[in-house]
Amino acid sequence: MDKRFFSILALFSSVIGFTANAAVSVSGRIIDKTDGTPLEYANVLLLSLPDSIFVSGTVSNSEGLFRFSEVGAGKYAVKVSYIGYETATLSCEVSSN
After folding, report:
1. Mind listing the pLDDT tens digit for each residue in 5-14?
2. Are 11 and 79 in contact, with CB atoms under 8 Å apart?
3. What is the pLDDT of residue 18?
4. I want to staple 10 with a disulfide (CB 3.0 to 4.6 A). Which of 24, 28, 39, 76 is the partner?
């Protein structure tokens, strides 16, 4: 079975706020690893670590972009699945500062 791979380009951007518990946005782009084309409608999950509890879910848009808004501080996994591709997981940590 030939499995294709994709890349997750994750970006972390601060949401404007001045409290110690300011939330951030976690966003990224999903592309085919071999030719760089964006993958639209990929399933993207945000899971808390270490127990992998579901936090939020979304799908990528026509440009392969996704975003989770108002993510609190903590350790997370971003899990991406797409038919015909191997599921990929990226760990990230969101800090309150």
Report:
1. 555 554 444 3
2. no
3. 41
4. 28
User: What single string gives the DSSP state of each residue in the chain?
Assistant: ---B-EEEEEEEEEPS--STT--EEEEEEEEETTT--B-TT-EEEEEETTTTEEEEEEE--TTSEEEEEEEPSEEEEEEEE-TTB--EEEEEEE---
* Residue bearing tokens 């030939």: 2
* Among 54, 57, 76, CA closest to 66: 57
Q: Are 54 and 47 in contact (CB under 8 A)?
A: yes
Q: Give per-residue pLDDT as tens, 24-51.
A: 888 999 998 888 899 999 999 999 999 9
The CA R_g of the chain, rounded to the nearest whole Å, is 14
Pairwise CA distance, residues 58 & 97, whole Å: 26
